[in-house]
What does this fold into?
Amino acid sequence: MAAAPPLLCFGVIADIQYADAEDGYDFGGCRRRYYRQSLGLLRDAVEAWAAERPPLAFVLQLGDSIDGLNARRGAAEAALERVLAVLGRLPVPVHHAWGNHELYNFSRARLARSGLSAAVARPPGRDCQACHCSPAGDCQAYHFSPAVRVRVVVLDAYDLSILGREPDSPRYQESLRLLREKNPNDNLNSPAGTPGLEEPQFVEFNGGFSQAQLDWFNEVLKFSDENQEKVVVMGHLPIHPDASDRVCLAWNYKDALSVIYSHRCVVCFLAGHLHDGGYCLDSHGVHHLTLEGVIETPPESNAFGTIYVYEDKMILKGRGRISDRVMHFRKW
It folds into this structure.
């Protein structure tokens, strides 16, 4: 008997960080970044996805589509236009997380009017995967159902952040107070000296989830529990220490995990941000997959994947630096 076809399949990619610039290095000066070549790797990914059979239902772009270098060069608009033009060749929707590098280049208000916004990229009536309303304010979290009894939740990991907000805004002030309570350094991008080094994630280049977003997330998962849905969650920042290093995590990742653990429906959390990638299966049976970043991938390789969703598992077919993986769902 032939194997059952997947319920759906979708593409995943993280940390493209394109800039029309010569290769450079990370902030530590030791990890090479292929700014200009990353756009070519994205083109290769798009071509591969377009040839997938069965065809993809959508693509998840996990944040940091362009590099912060563009802001210093006055090239942010042009860089984003080039990335979106390549992704626009796909005949399926692309769902975007916002990362720190988007917020180095643009204000949240500007991003909300860009092709990285769900409201702009998928206006009502244009997308069969109807996006459902977000939390109050300018939070960019939303969810959609691409197949029967399957739901995808896009979280806004910089809802709490000092990046991309006006310094006199209430959310900026709230975020700055939280950051300074946890990080005593003049350089808020440094985790050195954070209380007992127990919370090194409290740095400026990370962010967190507001209580309003967490409450909304809880209601979405309650609905999915009641309707026996499988839920895939995505955000730029990892939320489990074993799928990241101790720094590259959402500020209040424990709160996000607490919401997930109070429900039965979440099967996987997808993130970027940590260019080395990471993976763990946590104690509640949730798979945490952090994708390797395109920006630190040599031009002869790549870093993207396709995920096939079945009734009992997800199968990742990785390309280049991303390994294949079978992620079985827990049984209740």
